[in-house]
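Collaboration report, partner site 2.

Our partner group contributed sequences for two proteins of shared interest, and the home lab folded both. The records are reproduced in the order in which they were received, starting with the first partner submission.
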Amino acid sequence: MKAIVISRLGGPEVLEVRDMPGPTPAAGEELVAVQAGGLNFADVMTAQGGYPGAPKPPLIAGREFCGIRQSDGKLVMGYAQWAAFAERIAARSQLLWPVPDSWTAEEGAAFPVNYFTAYLAYWKAGLTATKGEKAPRVLIHAVAGGVGTAAVQIGKLLGVEMFGTSSSEEKLTRVKALGLQHGINYKQLDYEEAIKDLTHGEGVDAVFEMLGGEHTNKSVRCLRDFGRVIVYGSATGKKSELDTRLLYAKGASVHGLWLTYLSANRELMNASWQQLSTWAQQGHLHPVIGHVLPMEQAAEAYGLLAEGKNFGKVVLQITPSTRT
């Protein structure tokens, strides 16, 4: 089978399309003929050697996919730790989900990582249950990305007042069409100061933080009393800096969110899927796809994500899309 292989550690140039042996399903796994793969920043980090637990190269790239399950011919979307960007994958049965009838394989490939991460961020922030009359406030970093656009769609359903950072007015305008109320161009404004101005000094209830470095402290300073920062990445490539003294005065807290770990919690994933699938079937959730590229252009796709040039999801076509 053909697969996108990380040949060695480095930038997008280390990706190669190679002929590789096909997988053999183990107990609890099913064979899926992959049609499309969703690209995530974790894939960029894996190629660079910065993702925990990834095997040494050469390895087949990709952690999110959509294709035909061989046992029943149904279109399913799934999540794995690697080996998703190949014509076939042996995937864990419990991490395969049916694709809504009206969706394409590309849309299915753009769903699992972003929407589970976004929903679980709201869960970690304590915002998935109905609140009182006053809408909770959330600051979403990289709001025009895959997780960001998913978080905006979910936040709209939860009745959240959302503030989002991005690098351009064009991106912010497009995300506002999804339901974002307050856009902050971080190239023009310091988002910490912007949050103070927009909330009249009160701050937000939660920050979805995936930048790392100094931004963890800055995000804490954006909180109101008893607020929470949900950390789920480090796109800057820098370890999060956290001065715990900032937490004391506000009774604030910082929480980690790692889908790799949480995906092993069957009860939590099932409960999350129950809500997400209901919204999807009702037509409330629509994966935002900015680019679809053939697998031969994997390096270009990785480059778009690494350089922050994407809007929404970058999807790779593995084989021609069909569904039954």
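Second partner submission, folded after the first:
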Amino acid sequence: MSARVSISQITTVSAPFAADLDAYRAAGADGIGIWEFKLAEDSLERFRESGLAAATAVPAVPSILPLPLMEGPEDPEDRIEAICAGIRRLAPFDPPCVLFLTGPGEDRTAILDGLRAIADEGKRSGVRVVLEPIQREFAHLWTIVSSLDEAAALIAESGADVGLMYDTWHLWREPLEQIERHRDRIYGVHVADWREPTRHTNDRILPGDGAIEFGPILEALRWDGLFDLEIFSAEELAGSLWRDEPRDVALQGVEKLGKVLSSPSQQP
């Protein structure tokens, strides 16, 4: 069976939910990574009519501790409740998982409490929840964990039933042995390429256009779910994909990701 491709909605950040469904379907994508902030009253009905599958979903408040670059509540308890509310809102779309971040900071107690509360909500809502490690260069903006090993250790400390998210842009320089150790706990895969040099925390490019060697990563993952294209691309940067027409980005993204996944050099 050929690899299945989806597009995470942040990739076409300026387009509304309904336009994303049309663009992704027209591009030949198999699924959509749903972002809560894009949901409208009719989104669930439109999604079900689209024939697209749900990939990893993202709540409107995505981290336990505040994020310097995103608006949201300051109090971790308010943020945890917002994440839990997001899980409940996203559950009817039947995503394979809902991701969240720790956020940066020193309040480890809040993070551990958050892991447990989020895991409990995932269980009640019938949705897996996953912690996403963020790569080290920009970790101070997003997280206290930057590898699968670090994320797994934090989860073990909490005792919570939380899985892991693998993102090529964040983890491509981490040892592949970590994938082997944690493969069975990876419930979602995001894909983007690394621009060299990278100018900003939001400076991703389409697969095959950058520095990442995808073959060994794909071989280690042995992933049979949706490969979810996720592009952050700050508009103030030259060549930003967020400046481009969303339908064009979707079309190019599916094409390039498909080539990466189907290349003989990328096959196990």
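Feedback sent to the partner group on the second submission included the following. The chain has a mean pLDDT of 97. Strands lie at 4-8, 31-33, 53-54, 98-100, 129-131, 163-167, 186-191, 193-194, 204-205, 226-229.
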